[in-house]
Design goal:
The complex is a heterodimer. Chain A is mainly alpha-helical. Chain A has two domains: about 30 residues; about 140 residues, Nitrile hydratase alpha /Thiocyanate hydrolase gamma (Nitrile Hydratase, Chain A). In chain A, α3 crosses α4, α3 packs across α10 and α4 packs across α5. By secondary structure, chain B is an alpha+beta fold. Chain B has two domains: about 110 residues, Nitrile hydratase, beta subunit (Cyclin A, domain 1, Orthogonal Bundle); about 80 residues, SH3 type barrels, CATH 2.30.30.50. The longest helix of chain B has 17 residues. The two termini of chain B are about 30 Å apart. Classes of the chains: A mainly alpha, B alpha+beta. β3 of chain A pairs parallel with β4 of chain B, so a sheet runs across the interface.
């Protein structure tokens, strides 16, 4: 309830439907106390691209870790304490000067939750899902990631159980900085493959 | 006529620009977080498999699917599974919501009665040429339409996993290897583009030797 006499905005039809289902399931004792708040808090504060950024930074500074990461992504990510639903079968795809990787899910919205969090709205919407497998060079340029004509593009459609993470190239001029500072440079989109660093 | 689901979007034209934003909150509105949590509650209560869960979204009316957001898909799936498994009724939902409560359409595929034996040994290895079967199932599948009938090359053999086409339609389970298969985009779209490879992860029974 809002305090101080403010009038809350009237609920939209979809909000009314959510409230209806929540009330009926709660009355039947199916929604554990605090469950909605807890699951929301986890995805708002604990699980997100800051986790993937730590994985990338570690791979940049530790060649042996990078080797393990490319050989068995799930195990190497678990070394840093990350794992869970939608992260049980991780494959890491590495960008190089001539090869650019990008991930998509044309059938729904599969995404590596433990390292990137929940997918952004545009990743789940039809334009990205329809176009990234058909005209990736055009779409990447449109999204602010133009690639040289001769760069090879590898698109990964997450259609089964594997979830992908792009290992971006380490930006030039970052030799002297710490692993934590490197992690601060890694963006969500560089790990989806819609941006370069 | 049976057609493939509206969710199978790879390669469809006419959608226009991606409404891209560099950052956004996990949930833009509280109802999104609640809808997401309620689907976890319902799927757990009715013990829905991943295939059944995904199919409950894919069965949405196509116009509704394309014009509603991701979390409205989750809400519709949660309510559909709750009604189909007898947790609530549609009339209760509509009475509480004070209006229409659209649910997903019915399952069109017959139940899978006999799941068949597991496939424990991969039929293909990295480097093998394969062709994707061309078929149009009435039920759930994870074989995107845009690669059916196309030739590709296996680049990776993954683990043995439950076949979604089976688990979505009954209690039986069949497990098969999955493969990452590489397709030349120019071959998929016949448009002459160069240097673009599209990789799709496919279950063993989706493939035949090329």
């Amino acid at each position: 309830m809002s305090a101080g006499g403010h009038h809350p905005a009237p609920a939209s039809p979809v909000e009314q439907r959510v409230a209806a289902l929540e009330a009926l399931l709660t009355e039947r004792g199916l929604v554990p106390e605090g469950f909605i708040e807890e699951i929301t808090r986890r995805y708002e504060s604990e699980i997100g691209p800051m986790n993937g950024a730590k994985v990338v930074a570690r791979a940049w500074v530790d060649p042996q870790y990078k080797q393990r990461l490319l050989a068995d992504g799930t195990a190497a990510i678990a070394e840093l304490g990350f794992g869970g639903p939608e992260g049980d079968h991780m494959v890491i795809v590495e960008n190089t000067p001539g090869v650019h990787n990008v991930i998509v899910c044309t059938l729904c919205s599969c995404y590596p939750w433990p390292v990137l969090g929940l997918p952004p709205a545009w990743y789940k919407d039809p334009p990205y899902r329809a176009r990234m497998v058909r005209e990736p060079r055009t779409l990447l340029a449109e999204m602010g990631c133009p690639l040289p004509e001769d760069a090879e593009i590898r698109v990964w459609d997450s259609s089964a159980e594997v979830r992908y993470l792009v290992l971006p190239e380490r930006p030039p001029g970052t030799e002297g900085i710490t692993e934590a500072e490197l992690a601060g440079l890694v963006t969500r989109d560089s790990m989806i493959g819609t941006a370069r660093l | 006529m049976l057609v493939d689901g509206i969710h199978d979007l790879g390669g469809r034209q006419g959608f226009g620009e991606v409404s891209y934003s560099p950052a956004e909150p996990a949930f833009r509105r509280r109802w999104e977080a609640v809808a997401r949590a309620l689907l976890v509650v319902v799927a757990g209560t009715v013990k829905a498999s991943g295939g059944e869960f995904r199919h409950s979204i894919e069965r949405m009316e196509p116009g509704h699917y394309l014009t509603s957001s991701y979390y409205e898909h989750w809400l519709t799936a949660a309510a559909t599974l709750a009604v189909e498994h007898g947790l609530v009724t549609r009339s209760e939902l509509e009475a509480r919501a004070g209006g229409r409560f659209p649910l997903s359409g019915p399952v069109l595929a017959p139940p899978v009665v006999e799941a068949g034996p597991d496939v424990d040994t991969p039929r293909f290895g990295a480097g093998d040429r394969v062709r994707v079967r061309e078929w149009h199932p009435a039920g759930h599948t994870r074989c995107p339409g845009y690669v059916r009938g196309k030739n590709g090359t296996v680049v990776r053999v993954d683990g043995i996993h439950s076949v979604p086409d089976v688990e979505a339609h009954g209690p039986g389970r069949r497990r098969e290897p999955t493969y990452s298969v590489r397709f030349d985009a120019a071959d998929l779209w016949r448009d002459g583009q160069r240097g673009v490879w599209v990789h799709v992860d496919l279950w063993d029974s989706y493939l035949e030797r090329s």
